[in-house]
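Appendix B. Extra example for self-study. Work through it before the problem class; the solution is given directly after the inputs so you can check yourself.
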Amino acid sequence: MTIRVGILGYGNLGKGVESAIGQNPDMKLAAVFTRRVPEKLQIRTKGVSVLPADELQRLQEEIDVLIICGGSATDLPEQTPKFASLFNVVDSFDTHAKIPEHFAAVDAAAQKGGKVSIISCGWDPGMFSLNRLYANVILPQGHDYTFWGRGVSQGHSDAIRRIPGVKDARQYTIPVPEAVEAVRSGLNPELSTRQKHTRECFVVACEGADLAAIEREIKTMPNYFADYDTTVHFISEEELARDHKGLPHGGSVIRTGETGMDGEHKHVIEYRLALDSNPEFTGAVLAAYARAAFRMNQEGIKGCKTVFDIAPAYLSAKNGAELRKQLL
Amino acid sequence: MTIRVGILGYGNLGKGVESAIGQNPDMKLAAVFTRRVPEKLQIRTKGVSVLPADELQRLQEEIDVLIICGGSATDLPEQTPKFASLFNVVDSFDTHAKIPEHFAAVDAAAQKGGKVSIISCGWDPGMFSLNRLYANVILPQGHDYTFWGRGVSQGHSDAIRRIPGVKDARQYTIPVPEAVEAVRSGLNPELSTRQKHTRECFVVACEGADLAAIEREIKTMPNYFADYDTTVHFISEEELARDHKGLPHGGSVIRTGETGMDGEHKHVIEYRLALDSNPEFTGAVLAAYARAAFRMNQEGIKGCKTVFDIAPAYLSAKNGAELRKQLL
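Solution. Structure tokens for the complete assembly:
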């Protein structure tokens, strides 16, 4: 049986989900839904319709799981609870402080509709969260570290673009190699924000802009840059398009801990991602969890879930005997 | 509520479980069971009884989960099915080819007794298996690699000890650094057995033994050494005791894969362990899964499970809201 997946929102993440569905033979893309004018959207999967988001309500019978690919700031808090009573849904909500609130709203809707919702999927939150959990239960005495990058931070790139005189920008978050090595070697260093990551900015300035002023404004920007060692490079529009068009990312979750009656043995657990495309990898995680949402709901399960609540076997198209034989 | 854990078998793994229980405030060691003479066993947790294995049957009310710490060759195939109808049990069965058979026998007993059994826990099978599964569902188009070590292989050490003229031995499995780097860099190399790992042996020979003959016998031993580049060092008993008394291990599970409509973006997922004590880390994994077995059974779940069937949240003493707030 093929799982019919709908995508709501066709930005970078929606496109990532689209290509992930193409790699999973047990899934097919049912339709893409958009708040833009559907006729203006050209999607890459042949023979699949682009429909206005308003039509979703009447397509309950055609879609097994809806993957909601909006932003966490304003889209998902509205869209996920709205559709969670009508469809099994998956989202990538990542505003950490608001997860309890989002969970409660989505759970109420999913319970009411008898559907499964999985929120906050992706790699962080998502695979990194899972690895924090697994490592913490195995090594209750220990230290957690998360390093992000080398990768493009869209939030930081946007913050630079808002500075007057900036035409375009790309910001890379970079873990400090010495800090990563100190953690891996089990030294359990106490690391300040500045000691963990550096920030590298590639900026296209408007003609005649005051470059020194832009650089100063970036480096002193509170929350975003002031606490980091930041490097600023001014480059041309052509260089930005040529060298910085990708959206790579990644990072490491590391837990170091002790076992033994006197904590005499040290252990290091590391989960590391090196991703050429952040939205495509995130889309691939969402697609796997869409399978889980569908299969759990087939078994009569309902309500809001996170990656913590999903038995890994639900993520795979293989049955239990195949998994035990091939992957255990 | 404190989870009362029993340990059956007090070798290296049983001791590892004992120290893990001491690190988990929601668990307590109820008793250690042995097939040896209990009076001769000195355990390290104060005030806990050592009892003959035969007494287990009459202690169903005193033990919430039994962690069975026997060997996979002969102990577990007999013990786990035997106790799975009486207790929630956890084992570390690792004879890969016989997992389907073991699963069936344990499942029948657990279903009959209304208990939860979790088999094949630890790090491989166990955490490595989980990481193979997660990485495969995210990147359906890709390649899997597992490297073991640098660490002590007990099976290979035992094989050397069986050679006439050998008094004692310790064997290290070592990943070939160039192979690991080639995999990490996304080259997807095809690697032979010899290209993936080397083997290093530290051997204490009996007085007057023919060292050249021992070395030849090791290096040509089928399955164990013949397919590897093997180094043999003859050392004294004192050196073995001084430099090789630990049981370190570890390794990496790596999956490299492609996403995008044309597979144009590459990704690397790596899960890496560096362990000072293989049995203590394995024991720590078993303890976490013991919590899951107990909690699942409390909810009315029964039957045989593997790491694939356990929602991660069951492993933690924290509730869903705490996990979402602290680890998601």
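Self-check: Residues 250 and 274 of chain A are 5 Å apart (CA to CA). If your reasoning did not lead you there, revisit section 3.
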